[in-house]
Amino acid sequence: MTTQFIDNMAVEITGEGEPIVCLHGLGGSSNNWTPVEPALANFQLVRFDLPGSARSSSISAELSIENIAERIILACSKLGITRAHFLGHSLGTIICFQIAATRPQLVKSLALFGPLLCPTEAARPNIRARADKARNEGVKGMQEIADAITAGAISATTRREQPAISALVRESVMRQDAQGYARSCDALANAKAPAVETIECPVLLVTGDQDGVAPPQAVRAIADSIPGSRSVVYAQCGHWTTFERAHDCMRDLKDFYSGRFQ
């Protein structure tokens, strides 16, 4: 494994083969993809810590979906990546959609977990309130945000049967830099849906039946708008798909990249 810093973003690179660019969600890091690594053994994994997140939190500028996408595109260019598979979770899926819609020549396929095009109008005030809490309350605010996410974004089954997953999600969110997290929330709250109907590459969309961020009906609607895409719903699963249902994610990723989903 090698780790580079490009435009203040931490980028981990492992393996050989076709590149898969991995973009985590809000409150996540490159570690979101560790549970599914065995399914990606024949690829080169290029795992970003997004601007404002984890090791890439030292950023003072405002963030938007558009400027994060441009940073990823520029970093790919600096790494010599001209075409890649893109793998995303939550906020990362919005960025993947943005890149696929605006730079289609760069994107060979999309495999997206907990996917959304943008927040609902009802959700935006809550995301802005979360940004303010992180910005104004620092570490204390981040602990309260982490507790709320652990309680609300993980399925009841996972919380009961896999307490280590709850601890992992809580730690991931709680350890984020508060100011960087707030800027990431701002980007999410202001996100606009890209023109995904123009996307022509293979697309896999995966969510959980208890995912309140990317509910199954919304994910199926996205699939209906992208010709040839496929959606999958996991039972008793919340929003942190690769942690909650790693084995199922690996199975479906193997099928997708082998062409059995295409």
UniProtKB/TrEMBL annotation:
It comes from the Bacteria. Residues 19-245 form the AB hydrolase-1 domain. Keywords: Hydrolase. One of its GO terms (molecular function) is hydrolase activity. InterPro entries: AB_hydrolase_1 (IPR000073), AB_hydrolase_fold (IPR029058), AB_hydrolase_sf (IPR050266). The keyword Hydrolase applies. GO terms for cellular component: membrane. This is Alpha/beta fold hydrolase. It comes from Pollutimonas harenae.
